[in-house]
């Protein structure tokens, strides 16, 4: 994962300090590209432990067209909890303790952190147990899964993933193997507008490659997940199309390190990357649309310990 560490160093050496939507502040560069040869191993971060189970669970959720937080909660996947919770505590119906700026406040105030955890636990419990509440405050809006599997157009609904697979099979040399999650007409209804906004597939010599354009990249927390998620997507689409895997090319727009992640990034840069693991898929007799996260695993993964850092909401 030297490519990733080079990105971190590049931002620290060349980045500009900027304000951001969350109020945390970042150091940022604009325009950066990394390339991963998927024949050389699965690019799951080795300089800190990264949870493939969460990555796989989220990707399966996207591929099924799901936008309900209940599914992820039942899968013990907290990736999207804060964005659903934010919608709830900012609603007119919420009458509990003040949760303004809960992400940063919970880091510096132990009493508030306890209150926040209680409110979050109550919120997640209601999502699981109360259908009406889940429908109103547990759906994250028309985010990735909705756009990938049921993009709304004037002529009906478009299943971009099935269209992609059909296109690769029928005309592998096409330059139109594109899926977009950025739907301008619905972006304001999303809990979080898509960061990984558009991707394109390319077939050459029996291998399938993918380039992702990511408009906004949280380099310490988000990008390691994005790399592994799209590498996994390449493997899954390649399986569906009877192709080998090629490269994953990761193109970043605003690539930033949050100012409260600086020490964590420096700790990671002090570590030497280890050998990449091997991806294992239980796909026998299954379409990628039938997989669960339990069908996805890696062998030979020996990372350094995880490094904790706050998420900016």
From TrEMBL:
Pathway assigned to this chain's UniProt record: Pyrimidine metabolism; dTTP biosynthesis
Highest rank taxon of the organism: Bacteria
Chief location category: cytoplasm
Residues at the catalytic site: 195 (nucleophile), 195
UniProt KW keywords: Cytoplasm, Methyltransferase, Nucleotide biosynthesis, Transferase
Chain positions recorded as (6R)-5,10-methylene-5,6,7,8-tetrahydrofolate binding sites: 218, 312
Compartment(s) where it occurs, according to its Swiss-Prot or TrEMBL record: Cytoplasm
EC number: 2.1.1.45
Residue span(s) of domain Thymidylate synthase/dCMP hydroxymethylase: 2-313
GO-annotated molecular function: thymidylate synthase activity
InterPro entries, alphabetized: Thymidate_synth/dCMP_Mease (IPR045097), Thymidate_synth/dCMP_Mease_dom (IPR023451), Thymidate_synth/dCMP_Mease_sf (IPR036926), Thymidylate_synthase (IPR000398), Thymidylate_synthase_AS (IPR020940)
Residues engaged in binding dUMP: 21, 175-176, 215-218, 226, 256-258
One Gene Ontology biological process: methylation
Reaction it catalyzes: dUMP + (6R)-5,10-methylene-5,6,7,8-tetrahydrofolate = 7,8-dihydrofolate + dTMP
Assigned protein family: Belongs to the thymidylate synthase family. Bacterial-type ThyA subfamily.
Summary of subunit composition and partner proteins: Homodimer.
Function comment: Catalyzes the reductive methylation of 2'-deoxyuridine-5'-monophosphate (dUMP) to 2'-deoxythymidine-5'-monophosphate (dTMP) while utilizing 5,10-methylenetetrahydrofolate (mTHF) as the methyl donor and reductant in the reaction, yielding dihydrofolate (DHF) as a by-product. This enzymatic reaction provides an intracellular de novo source of dTMP, an essential precursor for DNA biosynthesis.
Protein name: Thymidylate synthase
The organism of origin for this protein: Sporosarcina koreensis
């Amino acid at each position: 994962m030297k490519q990733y560490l080079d990105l971190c160093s590049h931002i620290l050496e060349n980045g500009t300090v900027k304000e951001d939507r969350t109020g945390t502040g970042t150091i940022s560069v604009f325009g950066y590209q990394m390339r991963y040869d998927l024949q050389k191993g699965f690019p799951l971060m080795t300089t800190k432990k990264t949870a493939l189970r969460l990555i796989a669970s989220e990707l399966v959720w996207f591929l099924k067209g799901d936008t309900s937080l209940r599914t992820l909660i039942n899968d013990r996947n907290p990736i999207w909890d804060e964005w659903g919770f934010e919608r709830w505590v900012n609603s007119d119906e919420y009458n509990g303790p003040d949760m303004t700026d809960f992400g940063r406040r919970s880091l510096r105030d132990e009493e508030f952190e306890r209150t926040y955890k209680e409110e979050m636990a109550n919120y997640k419990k209601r999502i699981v147990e109360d259908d009406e509440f889940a429908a109103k405050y547990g759906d994250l809006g028309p985010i990735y899964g909705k756009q990938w599997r049921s993009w709304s157009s004037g002529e009906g609904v478009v299943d971009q993933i099935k269209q992609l697979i059909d296109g690769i099979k029928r005309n592998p040399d096409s330059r139109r193997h594109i899926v977009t999650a950025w739907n301008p007409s619905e972006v304001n209804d999303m809990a979080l507008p898509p960061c990984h906004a558009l991707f394109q597939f390319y077939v050459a010599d029996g291998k399938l490659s993918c380039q992702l354009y990511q408009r906004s990249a949280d380099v310490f927390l988000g990008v390691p997940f994005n790399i592994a998620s799209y590498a996994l997507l390449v493997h899954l689409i390649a399986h569906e199309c009877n192709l080998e895997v090629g490269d994953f090319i990761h193109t970043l727009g605003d690539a930033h390190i949050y100012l409260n992640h600086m020490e964590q990034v420096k700790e990671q840069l002090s570590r030497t990357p280890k050998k990449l693991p091997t991806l294992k898929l239980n796909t026998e007799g299954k379409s990628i649309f039938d997989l669960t996260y339990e069908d996805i695993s890696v062998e030979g993964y020996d990372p350094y310990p995880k490094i904790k850092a706050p998420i900016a909401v």
